[in-house]
Design brief:
Number of domains: 2
Strand content: 15-25%
Oligomer: single chain
Number of strands: 14
Shape: globular
CATH class of the largest domain: Alpha Beta
CATH superfamily of the largest domain: Type I PLP-dependent aspartate aminotransferase-like (Major domain)
Order of helices and strands: EHHEHEHEEEEEEEHHHHEEHEEH
Distance between the termini: 35 Å
Strand order of the largest sheet: 2-10-9-8-5-3-4
Largest sheet: 7 strands, mixed
CATH architecture of the largest domain: 3-Layer(aba) Sandwich
Helix content: 25-40%
Radius of gyration: 21 Å
CATH topology of the largest domain: Aspartate Aminotransferase, domain 2
Number of helices: 10
Amino acid sequence: MARVYNFSAGPAVLPLEALQEAQNDLVDYKGSGMSVMEMSHRGKEYDALHNEAIANLHELLGLGDDYQVLFLQGGASLQFAQIPMNFLGAGQTADYVNSGHWAAAAIKQAQLIGNVNIVADTQKDIPTRMPALADIRWTPGAVYSHITTNETISGAQFKTLPEAPTPMIADMSSDILSCPRDYSKFAMFYAGAQKNLGPAGVALVVIRKDFAAKGNISIPTMLRYQTHIDKNSLYNTPPCFSIYMITLTTRWLKKVGIENLYRLNVEKAKKIYDVLDASGFYRGTADKAYRSDMNITFRTPTEELDALFVKQAAEAGMKQLKGHRSVGGIRASIYNAFPAAGVDTLVEFMKDFEKRNG
């Protein structure tokens, strides 16, 4: 087996032991004679996996029964529309922090539904950054306030999360469970699974039940959060295999521990940032105060060298280092499951590439 170091921003690297367990169970899950991909979502085998994933997430997030863990389809992108459809009514206002590409995408969908107040805007700032907390101007009486905790494209991350006087909602797709966090401060948060939780195909939504109960009942059934709360995410056939992989990944997260993961994540990111800071060749693209621990974005002196870096790194077993198509450059995504040895390999390659091309 030849495993490369996969720096993809998503779908991203998964814990190797979770992949290996899935491989062992792929054809015949625990003697059932069926793959998880073939099982009924109403059967006892899948039901146990489904509920274990929910219980593991409650434990990892430190949340009680006043919150519901949901597994929904459509990714974080559907949540951009589903949130305002449920909670933003006529004559009401929702606050949004525009911190980059994905925050802007959420804003665009919400504006189709109702009135949006952009309370801070750093989308076009260079170097890329998150808004300073003191610069956010919340709207009194807003029905909710929305933030994006980590911008995967720009490589900027909130190091201290904003707090609003209204119900807080957060897109945590790229940094959920990567650091200690008080999730109880949020009325709702969500994440596409394909970065830190599992494979593509399922979105995690965690919502406080009393907040969900305020949702619009005149929208289609599948778009109501209450529908999925009432049916434990089994109103329709869920993405069973993706949820199974979340079960395996959350077992691994529990074993390693969030505090340990955070320490490792910071150490991994620091190794790369140290090379950037010591170099006159590379240029990090994010403001130092907001540098992401998950997505490290940088450039060489020219676009041609950027392309050569990506090409030669791939030949050396380090793949998916090309920056997002909208901005170019280089991006190393080093989520929870990314091995420290891969960071060490990248750091040595960066130093060697600079010697050869600086």
